[in-house]
Amino acid sequence: MTQSRAALALQAFRLLAVDPVGLGGVWLRGGAGPMRDALIAALRTMAPDAPWRRLTPGMEDAALLGGLDVAATLATGRPIARSGLLAGADGGFVEALSAERLAPERAGLIGCALRDGGVHMERDGLSAWTPTRFALLLCDEGIEPDEAAPLSLVRMVAFEVEVEGMRPRDLADAVDWGEADPAAEIAAARARLAGFGPAPEQIVRALTEAAAALGIADAEAVLRALRAARASAALANRAEIAEEDLSLAAILTLAPRAIAAPPPSEEAPDPAPSPPDPAPDETPPSEAQNEQAPQIPAEILLDAVRAEFPEAALAALIEANAQRNRRAARGQSAASKIVQTRGRPLAARPARRLSGGRIAVLDTLRAAAPWQTLRRQGAAAADPRPILLRAGDLHAKRFRQAIGETTILAVDASGSQAFRRLAEAKGAVELVLARAYVARAEAGLVAFRLDRAELALPPTRALARARRALADLVGGGPTPLCAGIRLALRTALAAQKRGRVARLVFLTDGGANIAADGRADRAAAMADALAAAAQVKASGLAALVVDTAPRPQPAARALAEAMGATYAPLPGRDSKALAAALGA
Questions:
Q1: Cα separation, 123 vs 111, whole angstroms
Q2: Residue by residue, what is the 3-state secondary structure of 536-570?
Q3: If pLDDT is split at 50, 70 and 90, which confidence band does 580 have?
Q4: Which residues contact 250 (CB under 8 A, 6 or more apart)?
Q5: 3-state secondary structure of 165
């Protein structure tokens, strides 16, 4: 019988409370609200004495890792170190709020502390190693697929919990302790867990084979599944891991990471006759120990996963994991630039002059504090200023600012297929602009027909404005392809000058028949179009040529090759397929 999502989530949090360091943590997906708060409150109830720290995306490195205590250093005249948030969480939990906004470099620092079991600080003239072991709660509030907690941290935690769609009644029933004392239960389970020995070979083999059947090649996932099974056995007051512990571990740790469907369940064959028992003095100790271990085949664990996750739910998990892995393999991330005015805070850097930037006061004081005793000697002894600063102490603030994308769609509005092409382009523009707030995306539309090209929609993020501009766009007539390419290129280069990442998308069958000078000469028109395409290639802009003909056309492929663009024949596709090709 399958459990509710709330009951499974509470099971994961109970196991995490028993072995927080071994399990690493939990990826808690969904917006902030009563569901997430109730689960976190349950964890705090189960481990009331554990340290608890909250981490925000904009936290400075000094606050995270530790650094110079400015006030104490100024008071004593010698460098005094202070510990950071991660060191203070030793033996407890770190709640990472808005984990989808964690910068890669910040995620790397947290991941190193998780992996190494400590924080290595090298800053402000100080060097220190502080051991710390903690569990990480990745509170991910991302909505779009690209908005997610860093995969490097997701892979270091054992559990994945989705709070969206969780029923309040199920959650209230799951966290109803009744007369039980959850803290005492967890403390007793931890004491039992400390007495567990190495896991038998059969159990490790069963988890490894189950992970392989689900397409999981990460050894860390198998180790975390084993840790979850041990914690489950300790909670159930068992001295060794049982079949139900392994099944629960497979459901909570392996199934959410599946990237392949397990093979269909088959009837187990009749067991082969066992060989005669060897003489007592011929049985090695290791074999005697393994004979006492439970014989649990991997198929039992896969059956538990199939029972808990219907085929459609498991397929959705597999597809989501595959997309996540593809984005990680491509290194897909939003383009950004480092500025001195606004954006996501970064570590300050020394600066001889600001040139329009802002002083990082705390970092400047931190750089000056260790030298105050030396600076007070000699001629500066009578200086009345409380703090003596030098030019080398000056630090400037830095920020990472996301760079938005501008997509220019150049649409062949000529001929009998103009209406269909324009409908697809309009739909694609709307889908691109639907994600404008998150991705800072702009979309513009160039339409070419008769003897000219026109900017039907200047680059914009306003969906309402785009709809009004596109409503009266008409098509028909010959194809001035060269004019369309040139206008689209100029528009994209203008967006690039504004500091945006520009790309070009051409919807055409490649059949030009109006030359650059307006003559109706097909050969000259194709030569001019290929020359304009070469200019696109020279600009270095990313480009996509979508062949909209009923059958793929050599002319469109030749145009894509001249541009150095990607060629995509999409006959019969709608605006959603086109937007998917654009990465919307």
A1: 19
A2: HHHHCCEEEEEECCCCCCHHHHHHHHHHCCEEEEC
A3: low
A4: 207, 210, 225, 301, 302, 304, 305
A5: coil
| Mean pLDDT taken over the chain | 80
Residue 170 near residue 4 (C-beta atoms within 8 A): yes
User: What was the pLDDT predicted at 105?
Assistant: 80
Q: Is 14 helix (H, G, I), strand (E, B) or coil?
A: helix
Q: Percentages helix, strand, coil for the chain, rounded to the nearest 5?
A: 50, 20, 35
The reported pLDDT for the residue numbered 294 is 55
SS3 assignment for 460-509:
ECCHHHHHHHHHCCCCCCCCCHHHHHHHHHHHHHHHHHCCCEEEEEEEEC
pTM exceeds 0.70 for this model: no
User: In which residue are the tokens 């709608």 written?
Assistant: 574
Q: Using one digit for the tens of pLDDT, what is the confidence trace for 155-203?
A: 899 999 888 877 777 777 777 776 778 899 999 999 999 988 888 888 9
Q: Helices marked H in 155-310 — which ranges?
A: 168-174, 182-194, 201-213, 219-235, 243-249, 285-292, 298-308
Phi, psi of 394 (to 5 degrees): -65, 130
Q: Which tokens in the block code for residue 373? A: 């005793």
Instruction: Return the CA Rg of the chain.
Output: 31
Higher-pLDDT residue of 274 and 308 is 308
Q: Domain 404-582 belongs to what architecture? A: 3-Layer(aba) Sandwich (3.40)
Residues of the chain with CATH 3.40.50.300: 5-181
Could you tell me where in the chain the CATH 3.40.50.410 domains are found? Answer: 404-582
- Find out whether 149 and 102 touch, Cβ atoms under 8 Å: yes
Whole-number pLDDT of residue 310 = 73
pLDDT of amino acid 405: 80
**Token output for 563:** 């541009």
Question: Which among 7, 39, 35, 45 has a CA at the least distance from the CA of 26?
Answer: 39
pLDDT recorded at residue 96: 92
H/E element, 398: strand 395-402
Q: Say if CB 193 and CB 234 are below 8 A apart.
A: yes
pLDDT tens digit string along 492-542? 999 888 878 888 988 888 888 899 988 889 999 999 999 999 999 998 888
Q: At 157, phi and psi to the nearest 5?
A: -110, 155
Query: Max Cα separation, the chain?
Result: 100
Q: Which fold has domain 5-181?
A: Rossmann fold (3.40.50)
Q: How many residues does the chain have?
A: 584
pLDDT tens per residue across span 136-154: 999 988 766 567 888 889 8
> What average pLDDT does this structure show over 8-36?
90
